[in-house]
Amino acid sequence: MKNFEKVSSIPCNHRSPKIVGGSEARRSELPFMVSLMRRGGHYCGASILNEQWLVTAGHCVCSGLNKIFQASQIQGVIGLHSISQYLNGNSSEKPIRINFKRIIPHPKYECTNVKNDIALLELEEPLSFTEGVKPICVSVEKPLIEYENQLAIVSGWGWTNENQEEGHKADILKKVAVKIWNNNSCEKSYKINGKPNSLISDTQLCAGFKSGGADSCWVNSSCHKILFIHTYRSGSRNDS
């Protein structure tokens, strides 16, 4: 576990990415994944940091009015594989529904801005870890440049196609490997492809392939990159 900080009472879940193109995850293969739910339906993903805390995207805790949710307005489901089986009461793995005590967005995060897009969720009750419920690894030592061209796993229940008319929201937890980009190259690519005002900050991470075909979820944040924590820690130093 070199270069990964132990932030929980047990070793974090660390796997080498082997999938490019996307596939269904096996049950309990990604035990740090959490489904965030509101009004009875899945809308975002989160990851387990330790027994008391989850990490998610800042925009996952923003309401339609661009205000931070109250902790009581959202819930989490841990150990989830199939959303439909869980909602229909037919899930064999018995996912755990959790409530939150506090939502803490990055102090410089704004719902209308993509910078510092991270939030912490404090649980009302601490988790008990099992084979299907474990924390994610948190990278703290290596600078982001050392991750360039490595593969990061993205997982979640998001859209299966960038075109919503051709795709659908995944029911089974999905995973895909994407290549981490140099931020300068990423910014240039955005500008070349018709987005001249795009700026990639040092609290952000780019990942994907020039040829496309493998990416994180579009529209929502039902997905998480396993190696994304390093950039979020950079943001926690109040970078802007």
Overall description:
The protein has 240 residues and is mainly β. Helices cover 9% and strands 24% of the residues. The chain folds into two domains: 93 residues, Thrombin, subunit H; 88 residues, Trypsin-like serine proteases (Thrombin, subunit H), CATH 2.40.10. The radius of gyration is 17 Å and the shape is globular. The strands form three sheets. It has a six-stranded antiparallel beta barrel. Strands 2-11-10-12 form a four-stranded antiparallel beta sheet, with no helix packed on it. It starts with a strand and ends in a 5-residue tail after the last helix.
Mean pLDDT: 76
Distance between the termini: 30 Å
Q: Return Rg in Å.
A: 17 Å
Q: Residue ranges: pLDDT <50 for 5 or more in a row?
A: 1-5, 15-21, 214-240
Q: Can you tell me the overall shape?
A: globular
Oligomer: single chain
Q: Briefly note the CATH topology name of the largest domain.
A: Thrombin, subunit H
Q: Please bin the fraction of helical residues.
A: under 10%
Q: How many H/I helices?
A: 3
Largest sheet: 6 strands, antiparallel, barrel
- DSSP strand content: 15-25%
Class from helix and strand fractions: mainly beta
The number of distinct structural domains comes to: 2
CATH class annotation of the largest domain: Mainly Beta
Task: Give the topology, please.
Layout lengths: L3 E2 L17 E2 L8 E6 L2 E8 L4 E4 L18 E4 L4 H5 L8 E10 L13 E5 L14 E2 L11 E6 L17 E6 L3 H10 L30 E3 L3 H7 L5
